[in-house]
Write a structure and sequence with these properties.
Keywords: Ribonucleoprotein, Ribosomal protein. This protein is of the alpha+beta class. It is 35% helix and 14% strand. It has one domain: Factor Xa Inhibitor, CATH 4.10.410.60.
Length: 69
């Protein structure tokens, strides 16, 4: 019998936190909005919630965890 092809599984924790755009950029939302919000001002809360682009130094690790993206 032929040996089955080894396949990589998607890391579900990474898949929930990051999204790959059509042009290949990796997007994520900032952390820190869930609780203890009363001590953070409005401007800070807006900036936390906005979509950000992952730095190039972390890009390779994230793409390895998302083999089907």
């Amino acid at each position: 019998m032929p040996k089955p092809i080894a396949r990589r599984k998607t890391k579900k924790a990474v898949a929930k936190r990051f999204k790959v755009s059509a042009k290949g950029k990796i997007l994520y939302r900032g952390s820190g909005r869930r609780h203890l919000a009363s001590s953070k001002n409005r401007k800070r809360m807006r900036r936390i919630g906005s979509v950000k682009i992952v730095d190039d130094s972390d890009r390779k690790k994230i793409l390895e965890s998302l083999p089907f993206s």
